[in-house]
Amino acid sequence: MIPFTKQAIVGQEYAYMLRSCRYSTDFITKCEKLLGDIFQNEVLLTNSGTSALEIAALLLNINSEDEVIVPAFTHPASASAFAKLGARIVFADVTEDTLNIDPLAVRDLITSHTKAIVPVHYNGVVCNIAALQTLHIDIVEDNAHGLFQYSKDYEGYLGMFGRLSATSFHSTKNYQCQEGGALFLNYNYDMFRAKCIRDNGTDRHLLGIVPAYTWVEMGSRYMPAEMLAAYFYAQLEMREVIANRRKKAWDYYYDNLGFLSLPVKQLSSHHIFYFLAENKIDRDAILKKLTDAGITAVFHYQPLNKSKMGLTFGEQHCPVAENVADRIVRLPLYYDLTYKQQDYIIEVLWKVQS
Ligand SMILES: Cc1ncc(COP(=O)(O)O)c(C=O)c1O
User: Fold this and answer.
1) I want to staple 126 with a disulfide (CB 3.0 to 4.6 A). Which of 88, 151, 259, 333 is the partner?
2) Is the overall model pTM greater than 0.90, yes or no?
3) pLDDT digits over 132-149, tens only?
4) Is 181 exposed, middle or buried (CB count within 10 Å of its CB: 0-12, 13-18, 19+)?
């Protein structure tokens, strides 16, 4: 069976893990420094992308008076981080060309209660940030898919455009350590509170300056494990190798699958290779035929506005998200996927379509 995804182990991951120590934060600090230097902002490593979003929600003091606008086509974590503090989640539709949040839909959803907008850069294709910035509402980028993706339009990396940005190092991501993430802080004034929130709401990071740490605000255990940070540092060292390999595999699909309904090619992180089937019946039939041929292809997010939890915020309509959720097919894409395997997948798809 060709798996859908596979963890890339490409450098010193195991060696660094053996060197890491329970009572040190050397690798956490090294990862934060490397990322901070590249992105020219403050970076806090966390134990997941979800945790990074939860810290963002606490930093914005989200409460039950607030509304937060989230795309309907995303992972539940983009919404739940804010919902758990009492916010009403308002779902915005996405555009079919990128599967990113539709700024026109967002504009129509703004009220005096809107506290934040959470654009997700699907597959690391940049959202229409300029249009969102004109709304003058705090932006929390959910950049789980797009670490290290540069945007020519905005002359910066994804994750540098909002007040805050979260990314994920979950084992399915391009650069991973099984479970991990980071919060990017684009304003220094968020830093002190963010550090406290990450460490159970304490000012433990001041130890050495203060004689004892104390509980200063709401937080939780969002710190990453040093051993996983050690693993992740090795991935960071190999980031160009990983990015190049994924790009080659992505381009190979793109150049050979022109008979499918592919998204327009644009700058992306090559996190996902997808196409859209005609409808749900066709999509499910394609997935079944691929499975029968030993290929694990999958669909993706279910529209959050139609989910059990999403419906607790009232009926909301996001027709594009609902439609693409029924039609999307994601193909295997990982570091050591071979051209031979890709040729086989392409051949099976060709037979399925003809
Ligand atoms: C768009 C998006 N946001 C947030 C998350 C949550 O990240 P994590 O799994 O690291 O908690 C994911 C998960 O994969 C995701 O796809």
Assistant:
1) 151
2) yes
3) 999 999 999 999 999 999
4) buried
